[in-house]
Specification:
Blueprint: H1 2-10, E1 24-31, E2 47-51, E3 54-58, E4 63-70, E5 76-83, H2 90-105, E6 108-112, E7 115-119, E8 125-131
Organism: Corynebacterium comes
Domain DUF306: 23-129
Protein name: META domain protein
Length: 133
């Protein structure tokens, strides 16, 4: 019984609301094949925090924030993204542009092996994130 209570509390059900399944902090792991050819990894730490329809994070150079919509059927879309406009080294800026272009194309999600895989809606994988622990 204690295990069940802890499980229910962990999912926010006891408090009267159910937590968003994707909520939490995620760290970028890699681009999927549908994001185009790799231009090299400039060693940036790229993050994304999902919180009940709000998204925020870092591209490694700039910060971004906005909203997102997801559904249990696999639909996922970012909306109203705003990005700060700091400059960085050329390789970092190329990486950031590729990341932001991929985010604009996201239309699906899948949770596989503890990783959040964001896709283009046609079965192509764009971005792969791992949970931050």
């Amino acid at each position: 019984m204690l295990c069940l209570l802890l499980l229910l509390q962990g999912y926010g059900i006891i408090s009267g609301r159910c937590k968003e399944a994707l909520d939490g902090k995620w760290q970028f792991q890699d681009f999927g094949a549908s994001a185009g050819p790799s231009s090299g990894d400039p060693g940036l730490i790229v993050t994304m925090t999902l919180d009940a329809g709000d998204v925020s994070g870092s591209t490694g150079v700039n910060s971004y924030q906005g909203t997102y919509t997801w559904k249990a059927n696999g639909f996922f879309e970012f909306d109203e993204l705003a990005v700060t406009e700091r400059g960085g080294p050329p390789a970092a800026m190329i990486f950031e542009r590729r990341f932001l272009d991929a985010i604009e194309d996201v239309r699906s999600y899948e949770l596989v092996d503890m990783k959040l895989r964001l896709g283009d809606g046609d079965g192509g994988e764009l971005l792969i994130f791992a949970p931050v622990t």
